[in-house]
């Protein structure tokens, strides 16, 4: 099928490698690098979202690594559909059990407060009852829907990557390879249906004993003449040709299944505005689009994605990655209402530029300047006003405060590229291992200067020469409150 955009794949690889290298450095000396890499390979999120939690849990109980991997995969698979009712059904009875301690009750209270945040669970043992619950609830046919079968034809719609691999065996479809991201990509915007001719054969794959076609039906193009067909060799095939080749009765089966899926999605597509009031910081609607600002007060950039977990019911196959905006701006979410199916969930951001453009030589930004006329938030060359003008003044103020708070948590570093032979002991540089010049690095200080090399605070050595350069950290940019108060003749400036 269609291949992933090469630039997107490269960027995703860079970000994932950055998180992995950061985790390896964080737990160096505590857990072998090989174990961390193994956990990364088994992180079901595909972007190392759970890696830090997995590492900490393995450090607690190193002999239960396999069980930890199993439980985190179960948590990830069921996270999108996790509701308050599920949590109450699993954990409320545990609160009243004989012998339940105050410590256990505190953990359960934390889980109930943020059930989709993996950090609410102290260990994989707390995931066990949840996984057992979902296993009991799972229908026996949850992996696929059999639409039709007779002596010649089998028509199935895979619901899981495992089912796609099973029914797609001997084909070269990307959704049936070991890389589950392709399956998630296609299921995120439509359905897959496999037509298997049990009496057919492939000219070169004689061991298959069957012939297969796959069709991807995009929700935006549900008409049969717009369906995307693929041969067993993954060759795109004309839709009109397939409409004539495939028996009409089988086409009708696929159409009915599509109609049923669209109807079910339509039932889930309504947006509860009361829920928006309760769970968001502020929101407004313009046409068919909801603009939603999340409250990040109790979140850091390491767990910020969980702030949007309550919105994942609208698009369970497309994880929200808010953390990727750390160097760009304050993230927010949009929901586009679409007739007959789930809203389209997307993310954007309010740029950091209004802050960075006001940076002073000491790397501070005065709060008063951000609110001054014709600059900062009120400037003409940023997207702040266009996205916030539809909010009431009090709600707009909440978003401004949240923006300021999150910017200061970002520790936005300003750097200066400098020759390594000009670095001195105590200077801090951005260190990227293995010669990388891109992606997030680690801030390390120079601890020793030799004639031809520099020793960094993690023990690494880098060349010291006039031809080699590194990014020297000049400091983190901070927004400071410049409101002046006099107490006992002292004038104080408070950092937010």
Structure description:
There is one protein chain. By secondary structure, the chain is an alpha+beta fold. The chain folds into 4 domains: 6-137, no CATH class; 144-268, no CATH class; 273-408, no CATH class; 413-476, SH3 type barrels, CATH 2.30.30. Helices cover 34% and strands 24% of the residues. It has 16 helices and 19 strands. It has helices spanning 6-26, 33-41, 51-60, 65-79, 84-95, 102-113, 128-137, 161-167, 180-187, 239-245, 248-268, 273-279, 353-356, 367-370, 384-388, 393-410; strands at 144-149, 153-158, 190-197, 211-218, 228-230, 236-237, 282-286, 289-293, 329-338, 341-351, 364-366, 413-419, 428-431, 442-449, 453-456, 461-463, 469-476, 478-487, 490-495. The strands form 5 sheets. It has a 6-stranded antiparallel sheet with strand order 1-2-3-4-5-6, sandwiched between helices. Strands 7-8-9-10 form a 4-stranded antiparallel sheet. Strands 13-14-15-16 form a 4-stranded antiparallel sheet, with no helix packed on it. A hairpin with a 3-residue loop joins strand 14 and strand 15 (453-456). It is globular, with a radius of gyration of 27 Å.
Summarize the structure.
The chain has 496 residues and is an alpha+beta fold.
- Biggest sheet character: 6 strands, antiparallel
Strand content: 15-25%
What's the number of extended β-strand segments? 19
Structural class by SSE content: alpha+beta
Name the descriptors:
496 residues, 16 helices, four-stranded antiparallel β-sheet, disordered C terminus, alpha+beta
Topology of this structure?
Elements: H1 6-26, H2 33-41, H3 51-60, H4 65-79, H5 84-95, H6 102-113, H7 128-137, E1 144-149, E2 153-158, H8 161-167, H9 180-187, E3 190-197, E4 211-218, E5 228-230, E6 236-237, H10 239-245, H11 248-268, H12 273-279, E7 282-286, E8 289-293, E9 329-338, E10 341-351, H13 353-356, E11 364-366, H14 367-370, H15 384-388, H16 393-410, E12 413-419, E13 428-431, E14 442-449, E15 453-456, E16 461-463, E17 469-476, E18 478-487, E19 490-495
Parallel strand pairs: 11-18
Antiparallel strand pairs: 1-2, 2-3, 3-4, 4-5, 5-6, 7-8, 8-9, 9-10, 12-17, 13-14, 14-15, 15-16, 18-19
Helix pairs in contact: 4-7, 5-6
């Amino acid at each position: 099928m269609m291949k992933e955009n090469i630039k997107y794949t490269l960027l995703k690889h860079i970000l994932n490698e950055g998180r992995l290298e950061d985790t390896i450095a964080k737990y160096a000396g505590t857990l072998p690098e090989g174990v961390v890499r193994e956990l990364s390979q088994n992180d079901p999120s595909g972007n190392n979202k759970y890696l830090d939690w997995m590492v900490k849990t393995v450090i607690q109980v190193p002999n239960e690594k396999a069980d930890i991997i199993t439980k985190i995969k179960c948590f990830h698979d069921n996270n999108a559909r996790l509701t308050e009712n599920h949590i109450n059904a699993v954990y409320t009875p545990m609160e009243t059990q004989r012998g339940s301690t105050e410590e256990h009750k505190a953990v359960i209270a934390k889980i109930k407060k943020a059930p989709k945040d993996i950090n609410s669970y102290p260990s994989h043992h707390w995931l066990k009852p949840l996984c057992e619950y979902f296993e009991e609830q799972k229908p026996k046919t949850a992996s696929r829907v059999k639409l039709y079968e007779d002596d010649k034809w089998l028509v199935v719609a895979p619901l899981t990557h495992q089912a796609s691999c099973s029914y797609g065996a001997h084909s070269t479809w990307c959704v049936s390879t070991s890389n589950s991201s392709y399956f998630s990509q296609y299921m995120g915007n439509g359905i897959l249906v496999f037509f298997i001719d049990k009496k057919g054969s492939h000219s070169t794959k004689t061991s298959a004993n069957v012939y297969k076609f796959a069709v991807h039906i995009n929700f935006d193009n549900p008409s049969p003449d717009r369906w995307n067909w693929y041969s067993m060799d993954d060759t795109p095939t004309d839709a009109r040709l397939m409409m004539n080749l495939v028996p009409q009765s089988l086409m009708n089966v696929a159409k009915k299944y599509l109609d049923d899926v669209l109807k079910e999605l339509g039932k889930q597509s309504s947006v509860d505005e009361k829920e928006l009031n309760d769970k968001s910081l502020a929101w407004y609607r313009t046409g068919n689009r909801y603009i939603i600002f999340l409250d990040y007060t109790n979140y850091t950039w390491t767990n910020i994605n969980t702030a949007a977990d309550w919105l994942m019911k609208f698009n369970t196959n497309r994880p929200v990655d808010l953390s990727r905006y750390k160097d760009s701006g304050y993230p927010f979410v949009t929901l586009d209402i679409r007739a007959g199916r789930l809203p389209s969930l997307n993310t954007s951001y309010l740029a950091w530029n209004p802050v960075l453009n006001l940076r002073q030589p000491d790397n501070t930004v005065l709060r008063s300047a951000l609110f001054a006329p014709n600059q900062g938030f009120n400037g003409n060359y940023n997207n702040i006003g266009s996205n916030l003008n539809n909010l009431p003044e009090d709600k707009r103020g909440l978003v401004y405060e949240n923006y300021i708070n999150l910017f200061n948590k970002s520790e936005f570093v300003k750097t200066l590229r400098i020759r390594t032979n000009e670095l001195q002991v105590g200077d801090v540089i951005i260190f990227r291992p293995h010669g990388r010049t891109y992606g997030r690095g680690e801030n390390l200080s120079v601890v020793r200067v030799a004639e031809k090399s520099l020793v960094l605070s993690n023990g690494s050595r880098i060349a010291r020469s006039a031809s080699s350069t590194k990014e020297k950290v000049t400091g983190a940019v901070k927004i400071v409150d410049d409101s002046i108060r006099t107490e006992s003749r002292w004038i104080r400036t408070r950092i937010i």
